[in-house]
Amino acid sequence: GAVVSQHPSWVICKSGTSVKIECRSLDFQATTMFWYRQFPKQSLMLMATSNEGSKATYEQGVEKDKFLINHASLTLSTLTVTSAHPEDSSFYICSAEESLGTGVNEQFFGPGTRLTVL
Amino acid sequence: GEDVEQSLFLSVREGDSSVINCTYTDSSSTYLYWYKQEPGAGLQLLTYIFSNMDMKQDQRLTVLLNKKDKHLSLRIADTQTGDSAIYFCAESMGDYKLSFGAGTTVTVRA
C-alpha cells in the first residue's frame, strides 16, 4: 500500500514556540491531505482538509491562525502549531488520499507526531 | 466522533473470534470503514464496505452491515496476539471526510 511519513515523530517544545510537522506521501501524489488530532484513548478529530495549491478548509472550532497548514506540493503538507501552549499537547496524525479507482478514495495515514508543550 | 459509537474494550482468548460493534447515525453514509491502530502508530485501513452491501469477507475479517439499524460489525476469526490493537470504525458521506468512533481496544489473551 501507499506510504505516508510524518516528521518529526515526536517533539517537545517550550510554551510560546512554534512547531512545524511535515506530512509526505512517499510513493503517490496526494491532492488532498487531512490533519487529525487524537487525545489519549479518544477518537481522531478532523482538524482540516489540505488541498494542494489552495487554502486549507478548517473544521468548526479549529483556529486557522493557530494551526497553519501549507500544501505546497502534491507530496507534502505541513502543519505549524503557532505559539504552542500545553493544551496543544496531543498526537497529530495526517492522512493522504489516493483514489483506488473503484469510486473509493482511501486515506493512508502517517504514523503520527507526538507533541508535548512544556 | 459523536455520530459513530463503539464499545471501548473487548477481551478475547487467542484462537477465538472477536466481534467489534459500531453504530452510526447518518443514513446518508456511503462507505463505512474499519481501521486498526497499534500503539504509537497511525491508522491502517483493514477493510471497507459500500453502504449498499450487507456483508464483505476478506480472509479472517468479516464485515456485516445492517443499514436499517445503522449497525456495523467486524468479526476477526481465529484471533491472534498480533490482533491486539485499537479498532476504529468510520463513516464517510461522499465528500471523503471521515467521521471516526472512539475506538475499541481489543486485548488478546493467551
Q: What is the H/E string of chain A?
A: EEEEEEEEEEE
Q: Approximately what portion of the residues of chain B adopt beta-strand conformation?
A: over 45%
Helix coverage percent of chain A:
under 10%
Amino- and carboxy-terminal Cα gap of chain B: 32 Å
> Residue-averaged pLDDT of chain B, rounded?
90
Outline the biggest β-sheet of chain A. Answer: 7 strands, mixed
| Tally of DSSP helical segments of chain B | 0
**Assembly state (oligomeric):** heterodimer
Beta strand count of chain A: 11
Radius of gyration of chain A: 14 Å
Largest interface: A-B, 25 and 23 residues
What is the N-to-C order of secondary-structure elements of chain B (H for helix, E for strand)? EEEEEEEEEEE
| Helix percent band of chain B | under 10%
Anisotropy-based shape of chain B: globular
> Unreliable stretches of chain A, pLDDT < 50, 5 or more residues?
none
Number of helices, counting only DSSP H or I runs of 4 residues or more of chain A: 0
Could you give the count of β-strands of chain B?
11
Strand content of chain A: over 45%
